[in-house]
Amino acid sequence: MATWFWPACEAVIAASSRADVQAAFRAGLDAAGYDRMAAGEIDIDNPRRSTMIVNDWPQAWFEIYQAENLIDDDPLVMHLRGGAGPFAWTDLKRLEGRTRWAIDAARGFGWVDGLVVPLRRAGASHFGLVSLTRREPVPEGEERRAAIVFAALGYERLRHLSGGLASTAAGANLTPRELACLDLAAQGLSDSGIAERLGIAAGTVHDHVERSKRKLGARTRTEAVAAVTTLGIIPLAPNQAERAGKIARAPPE
After folding, report:
1. Rounded to two decimals, what is the model's pTM?
2. Residues 6 or more apart from 55 whose CB is under 8 A from it?
3. How many CB atoms lie within 10 A of CB 200?
4. What is the pLDDT of residues 70-93, one digit of tens each?
């Protein structure tokens, strides 16, 4: 196994706070030769529900990402539709169209290669995802396997210490008030109950929820609540876990 691997894993496991885990994760990736990382929860059937737990890619890249609408059409994420496991950019033998454009744009930042590590969740379209960049080709063999295992360990530790809560709702772009309404809806409050809690009109609550549904691509309130809790856009208290599972399995209203 790679010489950096065990010390890096031990540091991530020993860290007890989110900040310390993130620092240990970053140090391990530096030792492995990876330049940038982004990690979060991805719904490939509805990319605007995607969230980020950690992200240190440059702001200039995200400006390109948004300008080119890669939120809805990231070719590397869409590659997961075929049930792909971890892969490097250089594993993609046929670079055409949007895939070639996206990789060429990334290489404009000095990244020669990248490693994409999907982590399957419940449901065919939901993944945890760690995306790493590198200024030289991703190595084969033990070095690559070590990076894949370490990426999964570091991300899951971060996710656990974040309480499953995302730092950003990358695609949905929900406002604080929309998030507050969905958070209270997840606790079982009606529009009038939410309105009383927030000190606003019930009609205003309804408008916030309807806008949230459109942004999330959800047909119903229950589907919107299931999306934001499952993907970590709002926190899920322990006593809400059973209820959230029922919401996720509920038929459309």
Report:
1. 0.74
2. 37, 38, 39, 40, 167, 168
3. 16
4. 767 777 877 887 777 999 998 887
